[in-house]
Amino acid sequence: MITKIIDEDLIQEAKSLIEDAENIVITTHVSPDGDAIGSSLALCNFLKTIGKEAYVVVPNDLPGFLKWMSGASDIIVYEKKKSMADALIEKADLICALDFNVLKRIENVAISVADSAAKKLMLDHHLNPGNFANVVISYPQFASTSEMVFRLICRMGYFTEMTKECAECIYTGMMTDTGGFTYNSNNAEVYIIISELIKKGIDKDAIYDKVYNNYSESRYRLMGYMLYEKMRIYPEYGAAMISLTSEELSKYDFKKGDTEGFVNMPLSIKGVIFSAFFKEEGGKIKCSFRSQGDVAVNSFAEKYFNGGGHKNASGGESYQTMDETVAKFEENLPSLKEEIDAELKRRTNG
Ligand code: 5GP
Ligand code: MN
Questions:
Q1: pLDDT tier, 16 (very low <50, low <70, confident <90, very high otherwise)
Q2: For the chain, what are the domain ranges?
Q3: Considering the entire predicted model, what is its pTM?
Q4: Are 64 and 257 a contacting pair, CB within 8 Å?
């Protein structure tokens, strides 16, 4: 039994927006991950199935390990096809904002979306939603936006219209936002949903293979270098930090997605429960933070690195040099000591 967590009024409001619309644009956050692409393509597939014109517009390109997904080759990458994307956004009567909740997260697409007369529907699982949408379906308790797409389709009464391709996209997002169901994944209903997706004909093992066994050799060379030379451990803080400059990345022929999951790796070390990853990209430094238990990295990201996110997975940006960014991190690491110590203690006692 899947419980009706999303408020019934919101479901009906979303249903009206969708049923009244003809031209729909779905958009998602910059550097889209498996959940961003999975939820967007799943919704797009569904909307087409029920006879709508639907497009997915993303700020920048998606990683290669997601390009096998049904509909991926039709995704419009804003930085490559700006005028086409702008025309679609202008013509749209509905814009669906998936897997983000503030316009800043869609960077270059934000102005056109904000200027568009289209109605806006937000479907998202991050904390503190902004107020740019007419209907806001924001539920941080869900592990993925893709799970929310499943729930929305079912609750609107369209489960029969869910295709196998749509189910594959939903599964991909659910899987990637939980690290292959290794964190944030103790909700029994997640497995009921997976069971429904399998009944739709998905091959979950094949999806795992396509997403996680699809990397380049250079990613593994870069990983070797990163682990050997660039991972710093701070035993007194139960913490780790990785930094990679653009020079280092290009030495290893870096392609989008090559550093996916690097930030999680130090958490496999006994005693490390907080991990930070700094990557120089496009003239700024992208920051990623991961933690375990009650160590809240979203407030750390917000306070020191212009970001935010979930309690155990957050990110931000730094506009300083790599050395300055790392120094700032080390300077502020003690601010988390109390939380980290408490969590480490809980782990030894538990
Ligand atoms: P990642 O480390 O995978 O890039 O991001 C992890 C999570 O942190 C994302 O799902 C998102 O919630 C949040 N996040 C990442 N970058 C930013 C950012 O620049 N600003 C904000 N507010 N959140 C971010
Ligand atoms: Mn997500």
A1: very high
A2: 8-212, 217-349
A3: 0.90
A4: yes
